[in-house]
Design goal:
The protein is of the alpha/beta class. 36% of the residues lie in helices and 15% in strands. The chain has eleven helices and ten strands. It has an eight-stranded mixed beta sheet, sandwiched between helices. A hairpin with a 6-residue loop joins strand 8 and strand 9. The longest helix is centred in the N-terminal third of the chain and has 19 residues.
Length: 323
C-alpha cells in the first residue's frame, strides 16, 4: 500500500495529466504494452522539454566589478590559495590605480583570513550589504569572517551555493577593476555556481608537476571550457626545490609536468613558482611574499610584469590591458 501511494504521488508530480490509477510495481501500468505507458512517456518528455527550455541561469555582472578572475585547481593542497593571494597583491602592485578585491569561495576551508592577516565580522552598509575587510589595499570577503575560526561548516550543496551567491551579490565591493576568486578544489557546486551566474573574464589553473595533481588539473581546465569560461593558462607551483646550503636543485614533484599538460591542452604556462620556505612562512604569518619580500627571486608577478612580449591576441594581455 505504501509503495502504491508513493508511486501515485510520484506519477502525479511528474505527469499531472496522466491517469492516477496504478496497480502496483509489476502491473500493466509499468508494462511497455500498457496503453497508458505511451501517455506517461509523452508527459515525461513534455516535462523535460519545459525544464530544458529554461536553460542555464543568466549571467549577471557583480555590481561595481569590471573583471573577474578565478583561480582553481582540481586537486587540493597544490598552493592555489597562496597563488591567488599573491597574484591579487601583484595585480595591485603592478598598477596602483587599479582596485583589486579577493573573494574566498572555499566555504569549507577558508584560507584568506589567515593569509591576509584579517579577523572580525563585516560591517553592514546602509543598503544592508556586507562591507569587505581590507588589508594591503585589497578588499577581502570570506566565510571565515562569518564563522568562528575553529567551527566547521557542515552544509549540503544547496546551502553552499546560497552562501556563494550572498558572498558575490550581498557585498559592497565598491569599484573594483579586478575581483580575484579563490575557488575550492574540484569541479563541483561552487565552480558551476560561479561560472554560470557571473561573467568570468578568465580562469587560471594551479597545479604541481606531479602526475596525480595533473589528472585533476586537466579536469578543471576541461570543466571551464565546457561552461565557456576562457582558461588564461596554467601556473606550475612547487616546480623546483633549491637547497639553501649547496644550491642543488631537486624536482621533488617532477619536472615540467604542467608544461606538458599545457601543450596537450593548447594553453600557456603563466609561470613557475618554486618550492620555497619563504613562501610558506610569509603566508602563514599573514604577510604574503609579494608584500613582505617584493624583491625576492620567488616573486609571483613575474608573468604579469614580464618583459617578454605578449602576442596581441594573448588572453593575458587582454586581461591586463582591458578597461
Amino acid at each position: 500500500m505504501v509503495a502504491q501511494a508513493w508511486s501515485r504521488a510520484l506519477c502525479a508530480r511528474l505527469c499531472p495529466g496522466a491517469p492516477r490509477r496504478l496497480h502496483g510495481w509489476g502491473s500493466a501500468a509499468f508494462s511497455s504494452r500498457s496503453p497508458s505507458s505511451s501517455t506517461n512517456d509523452g508527459f515525461l518528455k513534455e516535462k523535460r522539454a519545459q525544464i530544458m527550455s529554461r536553460g542555464l541561469p543568466k549571467q549577471k555582472p557583480i555590481e561595481g566589478v569590471k573583471q573577474v578572475l578565478v583561480f582553481a585547481s582540481g586537486k587540493g593542497g597544490v598552493g592555489k590559495s597562496t597563488t591567488a593571494v599573491n597574484i591579487a597583491l601583484a595585480l595591485a602592485a603592478h598598477d596602483s590605480t587599479k582596485g583589486v578585491g579577493l573573494l574566498d569561495a572555499d566555504v569549507y576551508g577558508p584560507s584568506i583570513p589567515k593569509m591576509m592577516n584579517l579577523k572580525g565580522n563585516p560591517e553592514l552598509s546602509p543598503k544592508n550589504l556586507m562591507r569587505p575587510l581590507k588589508n594591503y589595499g585589497i578588499a577581502c570577503m570570506s566565510m571565515g569572517f562569518l564563522v568562528e575560526e575553529t567551527a566547521p561548516v557542515v552544509w549540503r550543496g544547496l546551502m553552499v551555493m546560497s552562501a556563494i551567491e550572498k558572498l558575490l551579490r550581498q557585498v559592497d565591493w565598491g569599484q573594483l577593476d579586478y575581483l580575484v576568486i579563490d575557488m575550492p578544489p574540484g569541479t563541483g557546486d561552487v565552480q558551476l555556481s560561479v561560472s554560470q551566474n557571473v561573467p568570468v573574464t578568465g580562469a587560471v589553473i594551479v597545479s604541481t608537476p606531479q602526475d596525480i595533481a595533473l589528472l585533476d588539473a586537466r579536469k578543471g581546465a576541461e570543466m571551464f571550457r565546457k561552461v565557456h569560461v576562457p582558461v588564461l593558462g596554467l601556473v606550475q607551483n612547487m616546480s623546483v626545490f633549491q637547497c639553501p646550503k649547496c644550491k642543488h636543485e631537486t624536482h621533488i614533484f617532477g619536472a615540467d609536468g604542467v608544461r606538458d599538460l599545457a601543450k596537450t591542452l593548447g594553453l600557456d604556462v603563466l609561470g613557475d613558482i618554486p618550492l620555497h620556505v619563504n613562501i610558506r612562512e610569509t603566508c602563514d604569518a599573514g604577510q604574503p611574499i609579494v608584500i613582505s619580500q617584493p624583491q625576492s627571486d620567488t616573486h609571483f608577478c613575474s608573468f604579469l610584469c614580464s618583459s617578454a612580449p605578449l602576442s596581441p591576441t594573448s588572453k593575458r594581455k587582454e586581461f591586463l590591458t582591458s578597461k
